[in-house]
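Anyone up for a design puzzle?
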């Protein structure tokens, strides 16, 4: 069946993150510095420990609910556990999130082939993006910064809709916005559980971009595997 739409994951697909989450400590330090300047007097060690407790609880719950609250919720709950009464809409919370995001963006770069691939696919197919990210404003800023937005007909980021991959709802949202049947759409991403299992659950075809060794036998099988984004140009119609 003819492909009408190609949808992409964001991180480690169109944009590349530095390995091993080396960004995390600098991001937390920048957030902590912002908070300290705004009256949150707690040690970095105490702040970091409480943040990871809250984050790990979020991760555990999200694996079951497939929901993605905005990062502000995580910050607010961390501060509340530390004895500070800031809700999610407080300027201190939003400023802390922005501080984290501003540092995070320093560790992101564009895949070398992304622009060329999007330029060649644009107009031939409808193009969309479905990303898991709790700071959607940061995700959209990155898309603008690397000049990707102009090629995408629809963008959905989990933190703005409280749905995260592999939740079928977020894929259906994108397909409905693009006006394309699942069987005529291909999803491209780097993670078997999120970017292959999720789209397959709604009837999409899938292409895995192999950024790391595939470990074990999960039983999740993409329709195609590529090792470089530019391979997509000759693979998408054969998916």
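Challenge accepted. My sequence:
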């Amino acid at each position: 069946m003819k492909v009408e739409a190609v949808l992409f994951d964001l991180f480690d697909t169109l944009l590349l993150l530095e390995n091993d989450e080396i960004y995390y400590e600098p991001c937390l330090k920048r957030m902590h510095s912002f908070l300290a300047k705004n009256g949150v007097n707690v040690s970095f060690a105490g702040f970091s420990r409480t943040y990871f407790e809250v984050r790990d609880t979020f991760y555990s719950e999200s694996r079951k609910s497939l929901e993605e609250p905005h990062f502000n919720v995580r910050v607010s709950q961390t501060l509340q556990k530390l004895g500070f009464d800031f809700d999610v809409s407080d300027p201190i919370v939003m400023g802390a999130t922005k501080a984290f995001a501003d540092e995070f963006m320093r560790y992101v770069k564009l895949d070398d082939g992304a622009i060329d691939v999007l330029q060649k696919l644009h107009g031939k197919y409808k193009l969309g993006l479905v990303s898991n990210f709790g700071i959607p404003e940061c995700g959209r800023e990155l898309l603008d910064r690397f000049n990707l937005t102009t090629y995408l007909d629809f963008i959905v980021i989990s933190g703005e809709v409280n749905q995260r991959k592999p939740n079928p709802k977020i894929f259906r949202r994108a397909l409905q916005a693009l006006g394309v049947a699942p069987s005529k759409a291909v999803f491209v991403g780097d993670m078997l559980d999120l970017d292959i299992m999720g789209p397959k659950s709604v009837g999409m075809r899938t292409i895995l971009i192999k950024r790391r060794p595939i470990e074990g036998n999960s039983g999740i099988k993409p329709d195609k595997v590529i090792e470089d984004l530019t391979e997509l140009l000759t693979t998408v119609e054969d998916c």
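A detail worth pointing out: Residues 67 and 163 are 4 Å apart (CA to CA).
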